[in-house]
């Protein structure tokens, strides 16, 4: 209630020119009609106003001290036919990456069990494919079933899918499909030439139709401008259904890729992007994704305040190193963030406690 009161005081205090945009977004209203000018106006807010608005919306929709933990595994590495300018795995670039064909099921199970033991609640498997092939796809379905049987949520990212493949993924019990829009439709051609923005939207549409949760976001720091970040966010938020999960990646610069040596995004511009994503998609989980190992603790803390409530966790992302699990654990402790698994355990313990207290009080009565 206090948050709501503060939020409306804030809105009242904002200059008249901004009011047009600010009053249109309430705490959990889901809008699908964002225009670029109003998104730009959010980016232009004084940082404190933007963070306050984003955090108020975050708090109204989520536990602000809970964090969702996903762990990644590359199940098929390198030699990809697409030419994504950021990617170490494209066959078009010379990145000295060691290619690997599809991993055996046992290796995937082992990695998933390890991820669970380290505190992950979701296991995401990525394949360097433009689209899955007939030979390997059934093996991926088996991997999904195996991950589910460990009581982990499953996520895969396999490139473009047709509606039959989507249906098979659904039947295998897949929870999330990751398929990033990556950047604005206007900037897309500067980064990728072997597929179109519309190809990405078509796969997302198929996935949503089948009732699989969509995980879709983008990469910041590829040389795009703020207007591109606004345009990407408008594409995500104006989808018929917001993605359930929105990964905001900061480019991991890989030697040998066309985007190596690119000017980095300003840390506060990245924080603003997270905040605007939170405001525009109030019910979606916003993931602070690749690039965390380059971010200071303070920058990450600001992103969590701005509304990020998920991370990729583990020493390895797909082909590059992730933030170390030790330093992550310290960071979460320092910020008082609890993972979903920790929250679940403490809930169970409380439940057990109240049962045994109840039993004791009955025995002593
Ligand atoms: N091949 C599939 C595809 O492109 O959809 C799945 C794997 S691909 C590696 C998954 C996503 O990882 C990409 O869409 C991109 O957003 C992200 N990604 C890849 N390389 C990255 C990098 N160097 N920095 C940040 N994100 C990256
Ligand atoms: C996403 O948005 N980021 C992840 C996941 N989805 C598949 C991938 C990050 C890759 C970072 C570079 C690498 O390790 O190859
Ligand atoms: Fe291939 Fe995916 Fe990398 Fe693009 S991002 S080159 S599609 S693995």
Rg, alpha carbons: 21 Å
Helix count from the secondary structure assignment:
14
What's the architecture in CATH terms?
A: Alpha-Beta Barrel
CATH topology: TIM Barrel
Counted up, domains total 1
Write out key terms for the chains shown:
TIM Barrel, binds iron/sulfur cluster, alpha/beta, globular, 10 strands, 10-stranded parallel sheet, binds 6-(5-methyl-2-OXO-imidazolidin-4-yl)-hexanoic acid, binds S-adenosylmethionine, 365 residues
Structural overview:
The chain is α/β, with parallel strands linked by helices and 365 residues long. It has one domain: Aldolase class I (TIM Barrel, Alpha-Beta Barrel). Helix content is 46%, strand content 13%. The chain has 14 helices and ten strands. It has helices at residues 2-13, 16-22, 36-44, 47-61, 105-117, 137-149, 163-172, 188-191, 197-209, 226-237, 267-280, 297-306, 325-335, 340-364; strands at 66-76, 122-127, 153-157, 176-178, 213-215, 218-220, 245-250, 285-288, 308-312, 338-339. Strands 1, 2, 3, 4, 5, 6, 7, 8, 9 and 10 form a ten-stranded parallel beta sheet that branches. Helix 5 runs parallel beside helix 6 (137-149). The chain starts with a helix and ends with a helix. Mean pLDDT is 90; it is low at 5-24 and 361-365. The structure holds S-adenosylmethionine, 6-(5-methyl-2-OXO-imidazolidin-4-yl)-hexanoic acid and iron/sulfur cluster (SF4). 6-(5-methyl-2-OXO-imidazolidin-4-yl)-hexanoic acid is lined by residues 72, 88, 126, 157, 178, 180, 217, 247, 249, 252, 289-290, 317-320.
